[in-house]
Design goal:
By secondary structure, this protein is α+β, with helices and mostly antiparallel strands. It has four domains: 4-79, Rossmann fold, CATH 3.40.50; 118-229 and 462-498, Periplasmic binding protein-like II (D-Maltodextrin-Binding Protein, domain 2); 231-241 and 359-451, Periplasmic binding protein-like II (D-Maltodextrin-Binding Protein, domain 2, 3-Layer(aba) Sandwich), CATH 3.40.190.10; 247-353 and 514-580, no CATH class. It has 21 helices and 21 strands. Strands 9-6-10-20-11 form a five-stranded mixed β-sheet. Strand 1 (62-64) and strand 2 form a beta hairpin. Helix 7 (254-277) packs antiparallel against helix 9 (324-353) and helix 11 packs across helix 12 (393-403). The longest helix is centred in the last third of the chain and has 33 residues, at 514-546. The protein is elongated and about 165 Å long. 28% of the residues are buried. Bound molecules: aspartic acid. Aspartic acid binds at residues 182, 209-211, 378, 381-383, 428-429.
């Protein structure tokens, strides 16, 4: 049989109702005989014994399954009590009761549970808030000596707690942590610092840049994070200028230098070819000695290379192009030179004036692989625990380096000062690094984040404050208030924004890449193609003038081309003369008379 605790409320009520009805019917039946006529559902007919039965029911009192059953004058149940239950880790638990005989009275909740359940649990309470002096979270005001209480403090968390107190209606009293530690667990299992003070009951909540970690969360409760962060490296910017023997190469990227070299070789070769191809580049060097009929070309291979390097170096040369095609090449090369030299000069000036900083370390990995630069972190914080407990090789190596050295600091400020002295890298959380590098332009953050975590407010284990504070933090986040406070304390107050100019300057000088100067190369290619086309036109035009028929012109062209490409001599026999003296034999060089060839060879020897 089921015990009363296991019967459903409806069943118990039904049981008591049937019992009540049976008792009333019995009583009524004893005083008069009851009949049960059929009643129509359509008409409003009533059972004649209904009101008598009600009158018999009202005075009945008995202890049923649902407690004492009795009724007031209106027929409502009175003299009953409802238990108020809650679900706990151990199942349902009675936390109070409500009396049906005094419906106007509030719920009677036991003392222990009243505090926990009341939404007003924070209202009008005064919380002791433990914290640490660490800029910009909590700082002593310049005039703190003349002030007392909370008025001595200012900073990000001072504003945050103030916002929370307004939202939840509590008062607060700041207390600086006794041992200046955030909280680590010692070998005997005791927590020091802020965490220790919460556990010992010295404070109700702890708020500063207090990192949420799994170990700490076993000892205290944390609200949702109000700021996200991660470990990074604070390091001093090298002050000496980087001077390298080959810093004159810095204005252009390596690719651009290769392109310039290729352009130089390409243009010189094309100048040589076009020079040979164009008949207007071939001249009689001795116009008065017409009988020599030997033509000379200034643009030998070496001369072509000398001409282009001369103009590239802005020095010029004695060589002057005479044909339209070679002049076109010279023109486009001068244009190319103008743009490249101007870009080079401008960028070189920038490179020489702007300090380019090269860091001896670029990441945590590089830091861990060397031992000349010392590194450390805060002595009693989550950063130290991170390295101590890490299983990652780099971080293990770093911990082995740090653990036996004097590299741990009692305050972040001490770490910053040691970094400023040089040859020391300080491992700290990025939010604090952000604040420091905003004001100390000789310091910087090296590499990215080694982990990701957040700062939360610590409360006692199972404290109901946690949920209320978490909800309010979410609200502050959603309304953008937390962001505004961060901007205020990081970028504006206490000398924020000092290094903004510096970071702009250092990032503005970079070597010119092919994307920056690619257009000049395109123009150069276009100019060269045009020059080549002009050279072919010139060649055909001259050949057409100096020959009689199509066949002979073609032969002329082929012979001239063969000569142009096969022979590097800068002289050749004059074709027109040949044509005139050997009018029957066409203008083929093969048909030159012996003295003419000797003369041509003589020139070859001299000028090759
Ligand atoms: N915020 C850290 C902490 O809560 C301090 C640190 O180790 O950098 O322990």
């Amino acid at each position: 049989m089921k015990s009363p605790e296991n019967i459903l409320t409806e069943s118990a009520l039904l049981y008591d109702s049937v019992k009540l009805l049976a008792t009333a019917l019995q009583d009524l039946d004893q005083s008069q005989s009851i009949t049960m006529p059929s009643i129509s559902c359509q008409t409003e007919s009533q059972w004649q014994f209904g009101s008598s039965l009600m009158n018999y029911m009202r005075p009945i009192t008995f202890r049923g399954l649902t407690g004492l059953v009795d009724f007031d004058q209106f027929g409502h149940r009175s003299s009953f009590t409802l238990d108020v239950m809650t679900i706990t880790d151990n199942g349902l638990q009675k936390i109070g009761y409500w009396s049906g005989s005094q419906p106007s009275q509030p719920l009677n909740i036991s003392e222990e549970w009243r505090d926990n359940y009341s939404i007003m649990s924070l209202a009008n309470q005064t919380l002791t808030v433990t914290t640490i002096i660490n800029a910009p979270y909590c700082m002593l005001k310049d005039s703190s000596a003349t002030k007392v209480g909370n008025d001595r403090f200012e900073g990000y968390i001072v504003d945050v707690i103030d916002e929370l107190s307004k939202m939840l209606g509590f008062k607060y009293k700041f207390k600086l942590v006794d041992d200046n530690a955030y909280g680590v667990k010692n070998e005997s299992g005791y927590w020091n610092g802020l965490i220790g003070e919460i556990i010992n009951g010295k404070a109700d909540i702890a708020i500063v840049d207090l990192t949420i970690t799994s170990k700490r969360a076993e000892a205290v409760d944390f609200t949702l994070p109000f700021m996200n962060t991660g470990i990074s490296i604070l390091f001093k910017k090298p002050t000496t200028k980087v001077t390298t023997l080959f810093s004159f190469l810095s204005p252009f990227s390596n690719v651009v230098w290769v392109y310039v070299l290729a352009a130089y070789v390409g243009v010189s070769s094309i100048l040589f070819i076009v020079g040979r191809l164009s008949p207007y580049e071939w001249d009689n060097p001795h116009p008065c000695r017409q009988e020599d009929f030997v033509l000379e070309n200034n643009f030998s291979l070496t001369n072509s290379f000398f001409f282009t390097i001369g103009s590239l170096m802005q020095q010029g040369s004695d060589l002057t192009p005479k044909a339209m095609s070679t002049r076109a090449i010279a023109g486009i090369w001068y244009f190319f030179t103008l743009i490249m030299i101007s870009s080079y000069t401008a960028n070189l000036a920038a490179f020489l004036t702007v300090e380019k900083v090269i860091y001896p370390i670029e990441s945590a990995d590089e830091l861990s692989l060397q031992s000349t630069i010392e590194y450390g972190c805060l002595a009693s914080g989550s950063t130290k625990s991170f390295f101590q407990d890490s299983n990652i090789t780099t971080f293990k190596r770093m911990w082995n380096f740090m653990k036996n050295r004097d590299v741990f600091m009692s305050k972040n400020d001490e770490g910053k000062k040691r970094v400023q002295k040089g040859n020391y890298a300080y491992l700290m959380e990025s939010a604090s690094i952000e604040y420091i590098v905003e004001r100390n332009c000789n310091l910087t953050q090296i590499g990215g984040l080694l982990d990701t975590k957040g700062y939360g407010i610590a409360t006692k284990k199972n404290s109901r404050h946690r949920n209320l504070l978490s909800q309010s933090i979410l609200k502050l986040q959603e309304t953008g208030r937390l962001h505004m406070l961060k901007e205020k304390w990081w970028k504006q107050k206490k000398g924020g924004g000092q290094c903004a100019e510096d970071s702009k300057k250092s990032s503005s000088v970079t070597a010119l890449k092919i994307d920056n100067v690619g257009g000049v190369f395109v123009v150069l290619l276009g100019g060269l193609s045009l020059a080549f086309f002009v050279a072919i036109c010139e060649f055909m035009w001259k050949s057409r003038k100096s020959t009689t028929g199509c066949e002979t012109m073609c032969e002329e062209m082929i012979n001239d081309l063969k000569f142009s490409f096969a022979c590097q001599s800068k002289s050749k026999p004059g074709r027109k003369k040949t044509y005139q003296t050997n009018v029957n034999n066409s203008s083929n060089y093969n048909s030159l008379s012996q003295p003419q060839i000797i003369r041509a060879q003589h020139f070859n020897k001299i000028d090759y």
